[in-house]
Amino acid sequence: MSRKLTVLLMSLVLSSPVYAGYDEVMATYQRTGDFAVALAELRKLATQSDPQAQYALGSAYQFGRGVAQDDSEAAKWYRRAAEQGLADAQGNLGVMYLKGAGVPESAIEAVKWFRKAAEQGLAGAQFNLGLMYAKGSGVAQDYVQAFWLYRKAAEQGLASAQQSLGELFYSGNGVERDVTEAAAWFHKAAEQGNMSAQSNLGSLYLNGEGVAQNKIESVKWYRKAAAQGNEYAKSMLKQMGEPY
Questions:
Q1: CA atoms of 102 and 91, how far apart (whole Å)
Q2: pLDDT of residue 20
Q3: Closest CA relative to residue 236, chosen from 205, 191, 192, 193
Q4: pTM recorded for the entire structure
Q5: What is the pLDDT of residues 111-137, one digit of tens each?
Q6: What is the mean pLDDT of residues 55-82?
Q7: Angle made by CA atoms 60, 156, 141, in degrees to the nearest 5
Q8: Which CATH number fits domain 27-120: 1.25.40.10, 1.10.10.1590, 1.10.3210.10, 2.40.50.180?
Q9: Buried (b) or exposed (e) across 34-68, using 16+ Cβ within 10 A?
C-alpha cells in the first residue's frame, strides 16, 4: 500500500471518531457544542441498549430537541431505559402515563413507575408518588404514605415536596398537626421560590401561627408570591392596603 493511500485511510478514521459510550459522547458534545453529531451517536448507543443514551434520546423526542417532538417515541425510549432500571427514565415514564402523553393515560401505570424510581431515591418520583397517595389516584388514598414520601423528597431539597409536607403538618393529615413544623417547611420551600409556600408563609406571619406574628414578614412573603402571580397573595395585600 502506498504511503499516500495509508495517510488518506488514517485521515478518514480520525475524522470519524468511535465513541466508547455515553460519557464520551456527552464529553465531546460539551467540548464541540455539535448536538447533531451527539444525537447521532446517542441513537447508535441507544440501539445497543445503553440506558443513559436511551434516556437522552427519549428526552430529545419529548422536548423536540434535534428531532421532531414525538411523545410516542419519547415514551418508547424512556421505557427501554426504565426497564433496565434507570431511575430518571422510570420517573419520566410515570409522568407520561399520568398525562397520557405517548401512552394510554393510566394512573396505575404511573404509580408503578413512580414507585420503582422512588425506591431508588429519586426525589421527583418520591414526590409524585406522594401526590398519588394524597389524591388516591392509582392507589388507595393514604396520607401517612404521602407524608413519608414527601418527607424523603423534602429532605433532598425538593421545594414542591417541602411545600406539600408543610401542608400536611398544617392540616394534620397523615401526621400530628404541628404548625411550627409547617412553618419551617414552608420557609424552606419559600426560600427556593415556591409560590404556594410563600403565600402560606405570608398567612402564618399574618396570623402568628407557628411563627411570631409579624406584619412586615407577612407582606414580604405575600409580595414574593404575588410577583409570581399568586392571586390569593394579591388579594391579601389588597386587604392589608399594601401595594404589590
A1: 15
A2: 57
A3: 205
A4: 0.88
A5: 999 999 999 999 999 999 999 999 999
A6: 97
A7: 85
A8: 1.25.40.10
A9: eeeebbebbbebbeeebbbbbbbbbbbbbeeeeee
By three-state DSSP, how is residue 178 classified? Answer: coil
Calpha distance 144→176 (Å, rounded): 10
Q: Which residues contact 28 (CB under 8 A, 6 or more apart)?
A: 17, 19, 37, 38, 41
- If phi > 0 it is left, if psi is from -120 to 50 it is alpha, else beta; for residue 45 that is alpha
Least confident of 8-22, 35-49, 111-125, 142-156: 8-22
Helix runs in the chain, H state only: 3-15, 22-32, 35-47, 51-63, 71-82, 87-99, 107-118, 123-135, 143-154, 159-171, 179-191, 195-207, 215-227, 231-239
All cell numbers assigned to 139: 392507589
Contact by Cβ (8 Å): 202, 219: yes
Q: How does DSSP classify residue 16?
A: S
Nine-digit cell at 200? 402560606
Grid coordinates 419519547 are at which residue?
Answer: 74
Per the document, the length of the chain is 244
Place of cell 422512588: 118
Spatial separation of the C-alpha atoms in residues 38 and 200, rounded to whole Å: 45
Give the span between the Cα atoms of 127 and 192, in whole angstroms. Answer: 16
Pseudo-torsion of CA 151, 171, 128, 67, nearest 10°? -120
Give the pLDDT score at 28.
85
